[in-house]
Design brief:
TIM Barrel, globular, alpha/beta, eight-stranded parallel beta barrel
Length: about 260
């Protein structure tokens, strides 16, 4: 058995827009509900979700049959966590809060086998179909998506240099933390935030480096894709559930009130 092509990675390398969704509910059943929708990529979050290796494994198993590429965001660039996530079959990782070229290099090293990196070698793992993928060790480094998240003004200023580190497949802008760093906590859609992000994003695009982000406004997500962003998450499972529940209750309350007048 040969290692399959990472479809998300192949697409962003070719500049093909990829629409994603954030997965924060930390359960395989919830992941399966959205996996069958057909998003290009799904971000399984560990940084801001109550997830552990067992819940992530279940989420990856639930997503796998449906065609979306599962990217995992670890809580931090911990090489031990990274190798375990890759061993259980994460097809890519989104590293949070990367602040420098040195941190970018460390993130890449954690995902690659020696002599290129420091990833530990295991034999029969889910990622290589328990030893059945015969070219796994030869191709794993090149088929693992390594995305680095810049989330402060200092990191945005270095975004191009971070993106140019060998082995980096894309740069992801985190508008919520960038806004907080600018003294605009909770105002990540403000013009000031995007006036900072867009010039840095365009430098990356001009250098041929894929750029991504998460926004929960579908119209703005569409605008970013039109502006050259390659991979954009347009919502979160928690937000969809909360808004759907609120909207349904509001509809029922309004109907009840009309009946009682």
């Amino acid at each position: 058995m040969k290692m399959p092509v990472n479809r998300f990675l192949a697409a962003i390398r070719q500049g093909q827009p990829q629409i994603g969704l954030w997965i924060s509910l930390s359960h395989n059943y919830a992941a399966e509900v959205v996996a069958s929708a057909g998003y290009d990529w799904l971000l399984v979050d560990m940084e801001h979700a109550p997830s552990d290796m067992a819940t992530v494994l279940g989420q990856l198993q639930a997503i796998a049959p449906h065609g979306s590429t599962a990217i995992v965001r670890p809580p931090w660039n911990d090489p031990v966590m990274v190798k375990r996530l890759l061993d259980v079959g994460a097809l890519g990782l989104l590293f949070p809060m990367v602040q420098s070229v040195a941190e970018a290099q460390a993130a890449v090293a954690a995902t690659q086998y020696p002599p290129n990196g420091v990833r530990g070698v295991a034999g029969s793992i889910r990622a290589n179909h328990f030893g059945r993928i015969t070219d796994y060790y030869a191709r794993a480094d090149d088929e693992t998506a390594v995305i680095l998240q810049v989330e402060t003004r200092a990191a945005v200023a270095q975004a191009l240099e971070i993106g140019q580190v060998d082995g980096v497949d894309g740069v992801f802008f985190g508008p919520a933390d960038i806004a907080a760093d600018m003294g605009l906590l909770g105002k990540h859609m403000s013009r000031e935030v995007w006036d900072l992000i867009m010039p840095a994003a365009r430098k990356l695009m001009d250098a041929g480096i894929p750029v991504g982000t998460l926004v929960t406004d579908p119209a703005f997500a569409k605008h970013l894709l039109a502006e050259g962003f390659t991979f954009v998450a347009c919502g979160t499972d928690t937000n969809l559930l909360a808004k759907g529940a609120d909207a349904l209750l509001a509809q029922m309350r309004a109907a009840t009130e009309r009946e009682n007048t």
